[in-house]
Design goal:
- By secondary structure, this protein is α+β, with helices and mostly antiparallel strands.
- Helix content is about 40%, strand content about 35%.
- It is built from 3 helices and 4 strands.
- The radius of gyration is 14 Å and the shape is globular.
Length: about 100
Amino acid sequence: MFVVVVEFTIRDEFTERFLERVMQQAQDSVKLEVNCHVIDVCVCLETSNRVLLYEVYSDKAAFDVHLASAHFHDFSEAVQEWVSDKQLSTFERLQSGN
Protein backbone atom coordinates (compact mmCIF):
# COMPACT_ATOMS: atom_id res chain seq x y z
CA MET A 1 0.00 0.00 0.00
CA PHE A 2 1.09 3.56 -0.73
CA VAL A 3 0.70 5.99 2.17
CA VAL A 4 0.70 9.78 1.97
CA VAL A 5 0.96 12.01 5.01
CA VAL A 6 0.23 15.69 4.50
CA GLU A 7 0.55 18.29 7.22
CA PHE A 8 -1.08 21.67 6.69
CA THR A 9 -0.70 24.84 8.68
CA ILE A 10 -3.80 26.93 8.12
CA ARG A 11 -4.11 30.69 8.49
CA ASP A 12 -6.12 31.14 11.70
CA GLU A 13 -9.02 32.98 10.10
CA PHE A 14 -9.59 30.12 7.64
CA THR A 15 -9.31 27.10 9.96
CA GLU A 16 -13.03 26.37 10.25
CA ARG A 17 -13.65 26.70 6.51
CA PHE A 18 -10.59 24.57 5.73
CA LEU A 19 -11.77 21.80 8.05
CA GLU A 20 -15.20 21.72 6.40
CA ARG A 21 -13.65 21.64 2.93
CA VAL A 22 -10.99 19.02 3.71
CA MET A 23 -13.58 16.71 5.31
CA GLN A 24 -15.65 16.92 2.11
CA GLN A 25 -12.54 16.26 0.02
CA ALA A 26 -11.70 13.17 2.08
CA GLN A 27 -15.23 11.81 1.69
CA ASP A 28 -15.25 12.50 -2.05
CA SER A 29 -11.88 10.82 -2.57
CA VAL A 30 -12.84 7.59 -0.81
CA LYS A 31 -16.24 7.53 -2.51
CA LEU A 32 -15.09 8.35 -6.06
CA GLU A 33 -11.68 6.65 -6.23
CA VAL A 34 -11.76 2.86 -6.04
CA ASN A 35 -8.07 2.66 -5.08
CA CYS A 36 -8.23 5.34 -2.39
CA HIS A 37 -8.90 3.35 0.77
CA VAL A 38 -8.55 5.85 3.62
CA ILE A 39 -8.20 9.55 4.16
CA ASP A 40 -8.16 10.38 7.84
CA VAL A 41 -8.30 14.04 8.83
CA CYS A 42 -6.56 14.78 12.13
CA VAL A 43 -6.39 18.08 14.02
CA CYS A 44 -3.55 18.91 16.37
CA LEU A 45 -4.70 19.05 20.01
CA GLU A 46 -2.34 21.90 20.85
CA THR A 47 -2.82 24.04 17.74
CA SER A 48 -6.11 23.61 15.87
CA ASN A 49 -4.74 25.27 12.74
CA ARG A 50 -2.41 22.27 12.19
CA VAL A 51 -4.15 19.54 10.21
CA LEU A 52 -2.71 16.18 9.25
CA LEU A 53 -4.05 13.89 6.53
CA TYR A 54 -3.25 10.17 6.55
CA GLU A 55 -4.06 8.72 3.12
CA VAL A 56 -3.86 5.11 1.94
CA TYR A 57 -3.88 4.13 -1.74
CA SER A 58 -3.41 0.79 -3.49
CA ASP A 59 -0.22 2.07 -5.11
CA LYS A 60 1.55 5.17 -6.41
CA ALA A 61 -0.50 5.06 -9.61
CA ALA A 62 -3.70 5.38 -7.55
CA PHE A 63 -2.27 8.47 -5.84
CA ASP A 64 -1.46 9.92 -9.27
CA VAL A 65 -5.11 9.36 -10.27
CA HIS A 66 -6.13 11.20 -7.10
CA LEU A 67 -3.89 14.16 -7.95
CA ALA A 68 -5.36 14.34 -11.46
CA SER A 69 -9.00 14.18 -10.33
CA ALA A 70 -11.37 17.11 -10.77
CA HIS A 71 -12.42 17.03 -7.12
CA PHE A 72 -8.77 17.27 -5.99
CA HIS A 73 -8.16 20.23 -8.31
CA ASP A 74 -11.29 21.96 -6.99
CA PHE A 75 -10.15 21.39 -3.39
CA SER A 76 -6.60 22.53 -4.03
CA GLU A 77 -7.75 25.72 -5.72
CA ALA A 78 -10.33 26.47 -3.02
CA VAL A 79 -7.90 26.18 -0.09
CA GLN A 80 -4.74 27.58 -1.68
CA GLU A 81 -4.97 30.99 -0.01
CA TRP A 82 -5.97 29.47 3.35
CA VAL A 83 -2.78 27.40 3.73
CA SER A 84 0.40 28.98 5.06
CA ASP A 85 2.47 25.77 4.93
CA LYS A 86 2.11 22.26 3.50
CA GLN A 87 4.45 19.31 3.98
CA LEU A 88 3.97 15.99 2.14
CA SER A 89 5.70 12.66 2.77
CA THR A 90 5.14 9.27 1.18
CA PHE A 91 5.59 5.81 2.68
CA GLU A 92 5.17 2.16 1.89
CA ARG A 93 2.79 0.44 4.32
CA LEU A 94 4.25 -2.84 5.53
CA GLN A 95 1.92 -5.67 6.45
CA SER A 96 2.25 -7.29 9.85
CA GLY A 97 2.06 -11.06 10.26
CA ASN A 98 -1.63 -10.86 11.30
